[in-house]
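Weekly sync, protein design subgroup
Attendees: M.S., D.O., the rotation student, P.L. (late)

Item 1: inverse folding check
M.S. brought a backbone from last month's batch and wanted to see whether the design step gives back something sensible before we order anything. D.O. pointed out we never logged the input encoding, so this time it goes straight into the notes. Structure tokens as presented (467 positions):
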């Protein structure tokens, strides 16, 4: 099945010269790829897809638009596939105590009990916990680990897998498809509206490890779902590499909200591929909260394929102390009367670097389409940097597209005014930061907004936190 997204220039983004290029070196053996497929008892079509992706990875050049701090040498990543020594569990008490302690510290059992309809957790390269409440089962929603879906629902998975985000897009996508493991498959039946969110949580537990989970969400006509993605890792002595993938297909008049709260440790190199296709009158909303990691590359993207479809993308990133966040959004208006809105907020401090890259394209024939992009950066000191690189392609003259960008430094006059009214300096700065991110926090579920606020408070404590 062709999804009609061929020849879309997703890699056409500007180069940045202030750092040397990211290079990905080393090799992935064919025998490793075949072994992963064998262990998972995959059908032949999936094994062949992996091998085609491996061939493309070996030939493809590294994307030239990426700045980076160092190369990724695959020969030095000792674990490109890590199978945890844990049996998959449906009850928390069935997990080993050391793993249960990790999840209890992260309050996952509490979140699942209080407000989630379903939860899957991936440790290293495999799902170790899958919890689906009776509420979700009665609605007919399918939520299972991705590797199980390939075996249980091969025709359904094959219809969408690697079709929304093909492995030919770039070298990192090809590497992902060759090595993918873990992740979650969600299918929402026609006209089913899931009142409670579901979550997938990804945890990297080892240094010099590669994690390549794949999540595929399919919303049938008239359905609705909120999907939360959580990411975490302990502090490691050496780097690990994350190269995940999210594919969303929103059928006619459906709505999918995808929320990410990423809090990797500073030793994670994070490359996250995310794309959705929206059919007629469908809506896809992205919310991306990027807190941790040493380097992050992520551009939540939507192809507005059906007339009257819409998308919003809200990205918040924190870059502090040598951390680089290369984030943004891409939207392709491929049908008439489609709408999009992109909001980017970044906070940078202590030599951090924030980069916004965006692409808005209105195809010929997408008449009456409208898009608005707003980028804002708050710089807290003289050592930090913020860059904005938008691209707009208008191929139809009956469209409205706007872009607004602003970069501001911490306003000492504003701080002085607030302190003159009786606030301490840290309280004044707290109010400024909190005001800057207020509209982003409103879009998060309450529990995650509280968590994000606490993390920001810890991250910028000497500046005042966020209250």
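Designed sequence read out in the meeting:
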């Amino acid at each position: 099945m062709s999804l009609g997204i061929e020849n879309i220039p997703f890699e056409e983004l500007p180069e940045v010269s202030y750092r040397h290029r990211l290079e990905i070196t080393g090799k992935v053996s064919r025998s490793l790829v075949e072994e992963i497929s064998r262990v998972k008892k995959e059908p032949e079509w999936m094994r062949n897809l992996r091998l085609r992706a491996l061939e493309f990875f070996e030939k493809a050049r590294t994307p030239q638009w990426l700045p980076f701090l160092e190369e990724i040498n695959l020969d030095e990543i000792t674990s490109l596939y890590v199978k945890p020594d844990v049996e998959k569990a449906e009850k928390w008490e069935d997990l080993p105590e050391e793993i249960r302690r990790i999840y209890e510290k992260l309050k996952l059992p509490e979140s699942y009990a209080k407000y989630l309809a379903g939860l899957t957790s991936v440790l290293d390269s495999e799902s170790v916990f899958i919890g689906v409440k009776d509420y979700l089962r009665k609605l007919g929603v399918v939520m299972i680990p991705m590797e199980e879906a390939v075996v249980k629902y091969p025709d359904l998975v094959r219809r969408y897998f690697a079709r929304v985000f093909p492995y030919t897009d770039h070298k990192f996508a090809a590497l992902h498809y060759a090595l993918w493991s873990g992740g979650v498959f969600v299918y929402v039946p026609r006209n089913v509206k899931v009142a409670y969110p579901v979550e997938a949580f990804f945890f990297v537990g080892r240094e010099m490890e590669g994690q390549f989970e794949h999540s595929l969400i399919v919303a049938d006509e008239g359905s609705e779902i909120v999907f939360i993605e959580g990411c975490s890792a302990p502090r490691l002595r050496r780097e690990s590499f994350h190269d995940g993938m999210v594919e969303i297909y929103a059928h006619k008049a459906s709505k999918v909200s995808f929320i990410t709260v990423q809090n990797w440790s500073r030793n994670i190199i994070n490359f996250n591929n995310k794309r959705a296709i929206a059919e007629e009158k469908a809506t896809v909303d992205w919310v991306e909260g990027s807190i941790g990691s040493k380097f992050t590359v992520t551009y939540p993207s939507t192809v507005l394929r059906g007339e009257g479809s819409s998308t919003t993308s809200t990205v918040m990133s924190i870059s502090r102390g040598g951390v680089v966040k290369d984030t943004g959004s891409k939207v392709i208006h491929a049908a008439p009367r489609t709408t999009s809105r992109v909001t980017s907020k970044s906070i940078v401090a202590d030599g951090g670097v924030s980069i916004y890259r965006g692409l808005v394209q209105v195809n010929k024939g997408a008449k009456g389409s409208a898009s608005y992009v707003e980028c804002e950066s708050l710089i807290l000191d003289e050592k930090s940097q913020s860059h904005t690189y938008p691209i707009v392609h208008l191929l139809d003259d009956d469209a409205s597209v706007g872009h607004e960008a602003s970069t501001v430094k911490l306003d000492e006059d504003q701080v002085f005014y607030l302190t003159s009214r009786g606030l301490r300096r840290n309280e004044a700065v707290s109010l400024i930061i909190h005001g800057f991110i207020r509209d982003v926090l409103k879009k998060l579920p309450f529990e995650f907004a509280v968590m994000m606020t606490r993390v920001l408070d810890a991250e910028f404590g000497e500046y005042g936190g966020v209250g």
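Discussion: The chain has two domains: 24-410, 411-467. The chain is about 25% helix and 35% strand.
Action: P.L. to compare against the previous round before Friday.
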